[in-house]
């Protein structure tokens, strides 16, 4: 956080049918609908999140991610980072306050992987859902489905992962927590897991020829038992499943992957590695990618690598 990026702020996900998507993210995953706007966008949050929302759903003819945003510590830091991006040669777009409901001004840019990112400093804070600010209870009653606790990260596919990694490290102050490299002498970076705090990652990139592809949005659960319960709910609702429950070698998370009705992949996971700025990146080589991604099976699931939105 040396340059002032605090955490993932929100992700805007394109969906083919808004009502079906709301049922997926609210009834199944347990997010809470907080608002809608005159563009038809729906704003959701997980129950522990203090800001008003972390997921924005927008109906579209094509599934995928419009943008991912990170919250910075202040408006002054937002100006500083904007100048750093420009000085680095990155084109930026300034978006006015309240273009997203109850969110301050945003600075948008495109990474070499082809994904759009935003930085912002201000958003209405509504507090944890169903929890008093004074003398709070441990958790709120009335949560639905998996009861995810927070939006955690996105995994994105696109070209030039080394260039994108340098941008996030040198301009935005991210650390490289974990990485995947080629097993040859070149040790080319093909997977990058970047963090601004103690988490294993806040955003991750995998080398892919086609730019701007969305692999998944991930949401945190507290325990392995919560992940197993999520798996039961996936079966109870006949939700399309990708892989799991299992654990990763990379990041060491206990995980399950499944699809929303539009074909966007969702993940819920628990546990995982931690990172401090003085830690060297955890390194995996691409010839061990099966074990890195699916630690128990040690075999790559082709669907996991190729189904993108």
TrEMBL record:
<keyword id="KW-0058">Aromatic hydrocarbons catabolism</keyword>
<dbReference type="GO" id="GO:0018577">
    <property type="term" value="F:catechol 2,3-dioxygenase activity"/>
</dbReference>
<feature type="domain" description="VOC">
    <location>
        <begin position="150"/>
        <end position="271"/>
    </location>
</feature>
<dbReference type="InterPro" id="IPR054560">
    <property type="entry name" value="XylE-like_N"/>
</dbReference>
<keyword id="KW-0479">Metal-binding</keyword>
<dbReference type="Pfam" id="PF22247">
    <property type="entry name" value="Diox-like_N"/>
</dbReference>
<dbReference type="GO" id="GO:0008198">
    <property type="term" value="F:ferrous iron binding"/>
</dbReference>
<feature type="domain" description="VOC">
    <location>
        <begin position="7"/>
        <end position="122"/>
    </location>
</feature>
<comment type="subunit">
    <text>Homotetramer.</text>
</comment>
<dbReference type="InterPro" id="IPR029068">
    <property type="entry name" value="Glyas_Bleomycin-R_OHBP_Dase"/>
</dbReference>
<protein>
    <recommendedName>
        <fullName>Metapyrocatechase</fullName>
        <ecNumber>1.13.11.2</ecNumber>
    </recommendedName>
</protein>
<keyword id="KW-0223">Dioxygenase</keyword>
<keyword id="KW-0408">Iron</keyword>
<dbReference type="InterPro" id="IPR037523">
    <property type="entry name" value="VOC_core"/>
</dbReference>
<dbReference type="InterPro" id="IPR050383">
    <property type="entry name" value="GlyoxalaseI/FosfomycinResist"/>
</dbReference>
<dbReference type="InterPro" id="IPR000486">
    <property type="entry name" value="Xdiol_ring_cleave_dOase_1/2"/>
</dbReference>
<dbReference type="Pfam" id="PF00903">
    <property type="entry name" value="Glyoxalase"/>
</dbReference>
<dbReference type="InterPro" id="IPR004360">
    <property type="entry name" value="Glyas_Fos-R_dOase_dom"/>
</dbReference>
<keyword id="KW-0560">Oxidoreductase</keyword>
<comment type="similarity">
    <text>Belongs to the extradiol ring-cleavage dioxygenase family.</text>
</comment>
<dbReference type="InterPro" id="IPR017624">
    <property type="entry name" value="Catechol_2-3_dOase"/>
</dbReference>
<keyword id="KW-0677">Repeat</keyword>
């Amino acid at each position: 956080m040396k340059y002032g990026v605090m955490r993932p702020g929100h992700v805007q996900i394109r969906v083919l049918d808004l009502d079906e998507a709301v049922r997926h993210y609210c009834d199944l995953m347990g997010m809470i609908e907080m608002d809608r706007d005159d563009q038809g966008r729906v704003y959701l949050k997980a129950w522990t999140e203090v800001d008003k929302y972390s997921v924005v759903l927008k109906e579209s003819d094509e599934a995928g991610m419009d943008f991912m945003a990170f919250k910075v510590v202040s408006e002054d830091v937002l100006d500083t980072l904007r100048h750093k991006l420009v000085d680095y040669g990155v084109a930026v777009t300034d978006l006015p306050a309240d273009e997203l409901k109850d969110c301050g001004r945003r600075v948008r840019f495109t990474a070499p992987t082809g994904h759009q990112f935003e930085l912002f400093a201000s958003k209405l804070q509504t507090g944890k859902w169903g929890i008093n600010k004074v003398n709070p209870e441990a958790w709120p009653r009335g949560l639905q489905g998996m009861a995810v606790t927070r939006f955690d990260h996105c995994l994105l596919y696109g070209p030039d992962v080394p260039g994108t990694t340098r941008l996030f490290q040198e301009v935005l102050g991210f650390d490289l927590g974990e990485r995947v490299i080629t097993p040859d002498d070149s040790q080319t970076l093909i997977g990058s897991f970047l963090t601004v705090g103690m988490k294993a990652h806040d955003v991750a990139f995998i080398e892919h020829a086609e730019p701007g592809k969305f692999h998944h949005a991930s949401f945190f659960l507290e325990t392995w038992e919560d992940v197993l319960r999520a798996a039961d709910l996936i079966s109870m609702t006949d939700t399309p499943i990708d892989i799991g429950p299992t654990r990763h070698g990379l990041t060491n998370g206990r995980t399950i992957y499944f699809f929303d009705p539009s074909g966007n992949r969702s993940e819920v996971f628990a546990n995982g590695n931690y990172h401090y700025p003085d830690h060297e990146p955890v390194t995996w080589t691409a010839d061990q990618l099966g074990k890195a991604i699916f630690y128990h099976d040690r075999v790559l699931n082709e669907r996991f690598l190729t189904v993108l939105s």
